[in-house]
Amino acid sequence: MVRVAIPGGVWADVTAGAEEPRRELALRAVSGEDEVFLLESADEAAPSARATELLGRCLSEPEVAAAVRTLTVGDREALLLHLRRLTFGETIDCVLACPAEGCSERMELEVDVSDLLVPPYRDRRREYELSIEADGAHYELTYRLPTADDLDRVAPIARRDPERGAAALAERCVVRVEHDDAHIDAAGLTPGVRHALADAMAAHDPQAELELELSCPACGAAFSIVFDTASFFLQELDTRASHLLQEVHTLASYYHWSERDILQMPWRRRARYLELVASSVAQAGAR
């Protein structure tokens, strides 16, 4: 278990009353038992919801783990990056294709977790205000930042219809709206107001969307990509988890350990034991 920093922070009492958010949380690496959870939830839950549930399992303080869905999207992103570092290490290796028409060059990208983490936010509040002129009218909005729960709930809608997803997210996060001095429902916000709101949210929670500026070595095209930590990290874990049951079977057969004991091992130690088993089997076969 280590203590890691998040840019926004969770209020110490989780609900209300604390004047300053807690920016350091206790986190442990992904265990074999967590891998079993991922294996069993792969077909039942969306990547966003699986990532939130995984964090809840790995946060060591019960009151914070219970409130993991109230973390802002940026804080969840930071925690997933810390969890990836604890589990696999500092360096992230990716392979992507150039999006330029007629190119599709495969590129290897290496990035460090530390390069993806933003500094702590100076201004962290429970609610924010936005005063804008949009679509020929004046709007005064009070809103909060999107949370992990908000993202998990609107993700299925956004996958089918991004515009409807954006509208659903705005409705969940807007606390109050005044339109030309009259109160209106958040469902009545125009696309122009929603876009301005999204920009304001991004400015207050820059860790929420990590954009990488890249160029293709083959064609020279410059482009940007959004690095989705949840999807990338879960793909890595799912790949490893797919071999987990065979690893348990091999170690249980050779050492007669229980499934629980094997799953509680750090994955690197488990891998080392598998290497020893393979070496012993090879030596026995050579005799």
What report would you give on this structure?
- With 287 residues, this protein is of the alpha+beta class.
- It folds into 3 domains: 2-120 and 209-238, no CATH class; 128-204, rbstp2171; 243-286.
- Helix content is 47%, strand content 23%.
- It has 12 helices and 10 strands.
- The chain has helices spanning 32-41, 47-58, 62-66, 73-88, 113-116, 148-160, 162-173, 191-204, 229-241, 244-255, 259-263, 267-286; strands spanning 2-11, 21-27, 91-97, 106-112, 128-134, 137-143, 174-179, 182-183, 210-215, 222-227.
- The strands form 4 sheets. It has a 4-stranded antiparallel beta sheet with strand order 5-6-7-8.
- Strand 5 and strand 6 (137-143) form a beta hairpin.
- The two termini are 44 Å apart.
**Overall structural domain count:** 3
| Biggest beta sheet attributes | 4 strands, antiparallel
Structural class: alpha+beta
Q: Compute the number of strand runs.
A: 10
Percentage of residues in DSSP E strands: 15-25%
Dominant shape: globular
Could you report the average pLDDT, rounded to the nearest whole number? Answer: 90
Question: What is Rg?
Answer: 23 Å
Order of helices and strands: EEHHHHEEHEEHHEEHEEHHHH
Q: Spans with pLDDT under 50 lasting ≥5 residues?
A: none
What is the strand arrangement across the widest sheet? Answer: 5-6-7-8
Question: How many DSSP helices?
Answer: 12
The share of residues in helices is 40-55%
**First-last Cα distance:** 44 Å
